[in-house]
């Protein structure tokens, strides 16, 4: 398990993914043992650790990235914050703002139509007529929105119903001698939001191979989430070159409290991800946490540090776990060798 400190400002810094020799996947049982050892010894980076950022070919945050105008700020930055619900009236792309008809904010502001600054990711996925819930942030005479979530009643009901079912299955699994899903087991059903704010049930991926990993957008350690994202993108590219069909990639956030659909959209765009068959998912914290529990993935904030274990999982078209790797240096070939290209010959291009 590694430690990742959420950093202030724009959190997205693409790094070159290191390519390591093939390693035998670590079993989930071994992972749990390592986790408890980490609780005792700690897994945060120290001055004696190698410079992982340099080792991964670190580079600065791309100059084209638009920083979220509010998300980087802490709760003690002097800004005034209020919960907001409303409907998007218009998307003013040239001004990087949304025109929102919001409901009454008791003790602060009556219902009205108002213009708010938003991040690049939130702007990209905004649609007139979409209902949202968000945090209104006032800094002097400037007003912006952060933590924007879809607020459609039907979508919310679907997400909540799926979350309740997932929690029930988590409790049932917890009563078993070994309360985790491993290779050969069926992945539990879940429903979350994707990077466009659309409801995505895992059922939609049935009939396809799906490669799943877990990241969070504020991860500052080059060899962790940034490298994992680039490695997923490399896998996508190699699969396409090998004519692999019916293949999807999914990254699920470890930090749903921060990683809204708009934040994930900006993260994906910053890394140049082709979203044709690559989804980034987020949703209610209980739903994400129950999914992580069932897969034996451990997370937790300690003094602002997000400690988490790792997992990259290949799911069969029938929804079963085909292969799992709990290391940080897996290679695309580890999973692609299990896929059958349409030609019937598993010929993979050499990794670049």
Word description of this protein:
The chain is built from eight helices and 15 strands. The chain is globular and about 55 Å long. Strands 4-3-2-5-6 form a five-stranded antiparallel sheet, with no helix packed on it. Strands 11-10-9-14-15 form a five-stranded mixed sheet. Strands 1-13-12 form a three-stranded antiparallel sheet, with no helix packed on it. Helices cover 25% and strands 25% of the residues. With 352 residues, the chain is α+β, with helices and mostly antiparallel strands. It has helices spanning 28-41, 52-55, 120-125, 153-174, 225-241, 261-270, 285-294, 332-336; strands at 2-4, 80-92, 97-102, 112-117, 131-139, 142-150, 191-193, 199-201, 209-215, 247-253, 278-281, 299-302, 305-308, 312-315, 321-325. Residues 5-11 and 13-73 have low confidence and may be disordered.
């Amino acid at each position: 398990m590694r430690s990742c400190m959420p950093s202030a400002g724009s959190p997205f810094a693409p790094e070159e993914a290191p390519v390591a020799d093939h390693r035998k996947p670590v079993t989930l049982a071994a992972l749990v043992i390592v986790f408890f050892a980490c609780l005792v010894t700690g897994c945060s980076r120290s001055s004696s650790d190698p410079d992982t950022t340099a080792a991964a070919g670190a580079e600065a945050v791309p100059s084209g990235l638009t920083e979220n105008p509010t998300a980087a700020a802490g709760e003690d930055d002097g800004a005034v914050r209020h919960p907001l619900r409303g409907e998007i009236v218009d998307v003013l792309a040239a001004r990087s703002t949304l025109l929102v008809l919001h409901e009454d904010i008791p003790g602060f502001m009556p219902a009205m139509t108002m213009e708010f600054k938003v991040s690049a990711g939130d702007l990209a996925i905004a649609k007139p007529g979409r209902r949202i819930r968000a945090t209104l942030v006032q800094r002097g005479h400037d007003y912006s929105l952060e933590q924007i979530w879809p607020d459609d009643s039907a979508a919310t009901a679907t997400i909540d119903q799926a979350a309740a079912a997932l929690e029930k299955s988590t409790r049932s699994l917890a009563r078993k001698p070994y309360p985790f899903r491993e290779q050969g087991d069926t992945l539990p059903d879940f429903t979350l939001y994707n990077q466009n704010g659309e409801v995505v049930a895992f059922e939609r991926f049935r009939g396809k191979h799906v490669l799943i990993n877990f990241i969070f957008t504020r991860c500052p350690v080059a060899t962790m989430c940034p490298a994992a994202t680039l490695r997923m993108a490399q896998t996508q590219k190699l699969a396409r070159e090998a004519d692999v069909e019916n293949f999807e990639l999914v990254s699920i956030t470890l930090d749903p409290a921060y990683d809204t659909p708009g934040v994930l959209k900006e993260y994906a765009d910053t890394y140049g991800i082709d979203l044709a068959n690559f989804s980034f998912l987020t949703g209610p914290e209980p739903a994400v946490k129950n999914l992580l529990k069932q897969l034996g993935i451990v997370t937790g904030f300690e003094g602002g540090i997000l400690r988490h274990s790792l997992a990259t999982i290949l799911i069969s078209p029938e929804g079963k776990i085909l292969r799992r790797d709990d290391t940080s240096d897996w290679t695309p070939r580890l999973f692609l060798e299990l896929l059958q290209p349409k030609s019937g010959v598993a010929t993979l291009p050499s990794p670049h």
